[in-house]
């Protein structure tokens, strides 16, 4: 386990410090949480703000990790998401382009000043607009990202809907970007509102906030945004200090950067423990997102987040398992109603087969460089977890489940109605029963 700040065992830990885009065992964990305790944090925006901040080594700004009592390598931890409240008044987002002179092989990671070539340079703000990020050393414009087409979206006071604004409002928000973004005191990112994009004005959008990057730290240091098989693939063979082999990526990642819109209040995310203590971190919250995150970015926000943490002993997961709120499940993967069971019993008697009536839904997360590879990853993980053949997983997921895209290019949720006796065997049966009110 990485070094832990000695503040005693606590039932609640409030995290007010953040990393500069790095997660992994070299980070000091900010105390030890009792098994069953809660973590609260004000989560700064991920993606665009850290992306335009040249000193960050990853694409997010996540909370410092927390150790969990009794969590050891080979266990899992269940994160019960209790709250994701939007603090920001507005945000900016959109499709991106990169500035070739401001990075090496990966604009999210190995940033440098295009003029003086200082790696990960400190920076300052000069005015507003897409050229406002300046190298502290030489004064050159130093951000590696710009908008191909961007928008600014403002939220109503109860965070129910948002509306994209025009140039005047976007410029006003840019002039007070830190206030509008509601950045916490310890945050070091530049707010993306400074860029003041203003396309598609007047577009109304429903809000449903969720957490894009939450879980356990990997067993080797890596950029926070690359803790998954799709973004992580950019580390394979990279020449910068975070370069990995494919085997190292598969060994160390925990796949907790999901951008899955079902990781919202009421959901349970179960994550692998790859370092003693687990190292729970939270970041990259969003106001809303459609499946797939088609523009690669969505509505980054500052959010109040609270999660309850419970250790599951001897559950050696390869990646996260999600228990979404019931309404987020695909229709054919929802638990069966009493009426459906009665019909099933009649059919079973008619055709001389025993009814497999005790099932419960789980979503196995898979990631990879492409959607197809992510799906294959999820199928393999599900087969090994449930001790079924991959053919059986494919069949069951076809008629009692689904595959949904969390994020392009490669993060998926594979939903399956699994036999509860299989879930009991691996220690997930009780959680599934409680989440969905099953007997």
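^ Assign residues to that structure.
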């Amino acid at each position: 386990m990485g070094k832990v700040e000695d503040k005693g065992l606590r039932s609640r830990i409030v995290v007010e410090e953040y990393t500069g885009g790095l997660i992994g065992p070299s980070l000091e964990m900010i105390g030890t949480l009792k098994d069953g305790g809660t973590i609260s944090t004000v989560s700064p925006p991920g993606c665009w703000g850290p992306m335009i901040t040249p000193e960050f080594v990853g694409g997010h700004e996540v909370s410092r990790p927390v150790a969990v009592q009794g969590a050891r390598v080979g266990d899992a931890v269940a994160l019960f998401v209790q709250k994701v409240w939007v603090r920001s008044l507005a945000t900016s987002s959109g499709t991106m382009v990169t500035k070739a002179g401001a990075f090496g092989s990966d604009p999210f990671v190995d940033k440098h000043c295009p003029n003086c070539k200082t790696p990960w340079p400190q920076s300052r703000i000069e005015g507003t607009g897409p050229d406002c990020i300046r190298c502290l050393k030489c004064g050159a414009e130093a951000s590696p990202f710009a908008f191909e087409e961007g928008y600014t979206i403002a939220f109503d006071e109860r965070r129910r809907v948002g509306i994209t604004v025009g140039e005047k409002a976007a410029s006003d928000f840019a002039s007070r970007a830190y206030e509008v973004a509601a950045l916490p005191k310890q945050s070091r990112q530049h707010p993306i509102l400074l860029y003041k994009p203003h396309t598609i004005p007047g577009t109304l959008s429903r809000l449903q906030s969720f957490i894009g990057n939450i879980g356990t730290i990997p067993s080797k240091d890596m950029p926070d945004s690359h803790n998954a098989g799709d973004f992580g693939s950019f580390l394979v063979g990279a020449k910068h200090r975070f370069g990995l082999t494919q085997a190292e990526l598969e060994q160390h990642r925990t796949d907790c950067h999901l951008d899955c819109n079902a990781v919202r209040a009421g959901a349970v995310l179960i994550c692998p423990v790859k370092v003693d203590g687990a190292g729970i971190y939270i970041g990259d919250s969003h106001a809303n997102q459609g499946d797939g995150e088609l523009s690669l970015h969505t509505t980054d926000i500052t959010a109040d987040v609270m999660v309850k943490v419970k250790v599951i002993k001897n559950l050696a997961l390869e990646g996260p398992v999600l228990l979404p709120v019931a309404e987020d499940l695909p229709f054919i993967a929802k638990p069966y109603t009493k009426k459906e069971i009665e019909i099933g019993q009649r059919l079973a008697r008619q055709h001389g087969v025993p009814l497999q009536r005790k099932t419960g839904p789980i979503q196995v997360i898979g990631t990879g460089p492409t959607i197809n590879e992510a799906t294959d990853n999820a199928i393999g993980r599900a087969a090994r977890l449930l001790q079924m053949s991959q053919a059986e997983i494919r069949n069951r997921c076809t008629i009692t489940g689904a595959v949904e895209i969390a994020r392009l290019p490669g993060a998926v949720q594979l939903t399956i109605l699994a036999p509860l006796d299989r879930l009991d065997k691996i220690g997930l049966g009780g959680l599934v029963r409680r989440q969905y009110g099953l007997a």
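The first strand starts at residue 9 and ends at 15.
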